Amino acid sequence: RREPLALINLKKKNETGEEELASRLDHCKAKATRHIFLIRHSQYNLDGRADKDRTLTPLGREQAELTGRRLASLGLKFDQIIHSSMTRATETTEIISKHLPGVKKISTDLLREGAPIEPDPPVSHWKPEAVQYYEDGARIEAAFRNFIHRADAKQEEDSYEIFVCHANVIRYIVCRALQFPPEGWLRLSLNNGSITHLVIRPNGRVALRTLGDTGFMPPDKITRT
Fold first, then answer.
1. Superkingdom, according to UniProt (predicted)?
2. What percent of the chain stands above pLDDT 90?
3. Phi/psi of residue 211, nearest 5 degrees
4. What distance in Å separates the CA atoms of residue 157 and residue 117, rounded to the nearest whole number?
């Protein structure tokens, strides 16, 4: 609902002339491009029973350092880092942010890991309870609608934003953003600390520049756990 026509009061639209309508539509059009960098958290302790125990491993901390250096090397003026409130995403963010001084960090529960939608085809090794899809799916869809959209009409310059979250969330967002069947999200695979780059143009069109890039890491540092 970010098309210019969707932002105009329909009753008033019918009362105005064509010239005034064209002017109002132009006022509602986005002018800037949004660059979305989706970062999967680094390797973490799988044996932790509670979220607070699922901290990054020593290798995971190395991966986050490499990801932070890579983002810094791009030479972009990042506007913010929005991250999942889960421990592994928060720790990954803290390490990355050391390489991007001055970039504000925002924590959100919307980006927490979960089961976005029942995958098609199904897999035998991962079968959460059906209720989890309803609980997590609504939240992750809300994250997509809240964060992945064209720029606001008031935004004058292109923006560069980092989102540090989880594989399931990123895979679902990519499918939704590209208007692919979201049930195919599990067919995508993402390494720890990987960078996925989405571009959202002023007209709402979305392009995928990179998916799960870890080419900046030595082969012995790459994991998918």
1. Eukaryota
2. 80
3. -125, 115
4. 35
Cα distance from N-terminal residue to C-terminal residue, the chain? 37
- The residues with which 79 forms a beta bridge, in sequence order, are none
Summarised one tens digit per residue, pLDDT across range 29-59 is 899 999 999 999 999 999 999 999 999 999 9
Q: What is the pTM of this model?
A: 0.91
Q: Which residue has the higher pLDDT, 4 or 103?
A: 103
CA distance 148 to 23: 27
Rounded CA separation 114/170 (Å): 11
Length of the chain, in residues: 225
Q: Which amino acid is at 195?
A: I
CA 37 to chain centre: 7
Residue 92: which of 52, 65, 53 has the closest Cα?
A: 65
- Evaluate whether 42 touches 88 at the Cβ level (below 8 Å): yes
Domain annotation for the chain: domains and CATH numbers: 1-30 (no CATH), 32-221 (3.40.50.1240)
* Beta carbons of 144 and 198 less than 8 angstroms apart: no
Distance CA 12, CA 134 (A): 39
**76: which 2 tokens?**
């972009």
pLDDT the model gives residue 11: 58
Is-cis flag, bond preceding 4, omega within 30? no
Where are the extended beta strands (E) located within 8-101? 34-40, 80-84
